[in-house]
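=== Given protein ===
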Amino acid sequence: MGRSRKRADRIRERVDISEFLSDLGYTVHSHGGHREQQFSCDLHGDGSDSKPSARVYPSSNSWYCFACSKKRDSITTLMERKGLSFHESCDLIEQKYGLPPLPFEKEEDGYSELSFREQKPTYDSMKNRISTILNTQSVEKSITLSQFLGLWEVFNMIVYKVENNKVSEDSAIDNLVKVKSKIFQYIKENVNGK
C-alpha cells in the first residue's frame, strides 16, 4: 500500500469527522458521540443552505450532502472547501490533529519515494532504471509478452523523441515514471491473478 493511501486511511481512522466539521465552522457538535447530525452544507449553490441538507455519519467517519449528492470525508471536504490538493489537505489535517509524518518506504524497485522528493530524477537516471527493470522481468512469469512488448515500445518511443528533440526531458521523465508505474501494476495483476 502506498504512502498516500496509508496517510488517508490513518486520517479517516484517527480524525473524528464531527470534530473536524465543527473545527471548520459547521454546526455539528464535536462531542455528539456516534449520533448522526444534520447540518448546513456550504459547498453547493451560492454557499448558503437555509435548510440543513447534509448529515454526518460518525460510524463511517464521513458525511453526505443530499443537495450536492456527494459523500465526503475530512480530506475531500478540505480539498473542496479550501481548493487544496490531496497532499496539502493531508498535511494540514495531520498538523492540526497532531499526526506525525509517516516514514517514506522503499518502492518495489528499491528506490524510496524520498529520493523523488529530495531531487527530481534526471532523464538518464530514469531511462536507466526503466531499462534495467524491463531487462530483468521474466516474460510470462511477471508480465505477459504483449504487456512486455507494449512497455518496450512506449519506452523506446520516449527515448527516440528525446534524442530527436521532439519532447523535453522533463516531459520524458514524467512519462517514464508512468511507464514504471504501469510495469509494477502489470506485475501485481499477473502475480495476484496466477
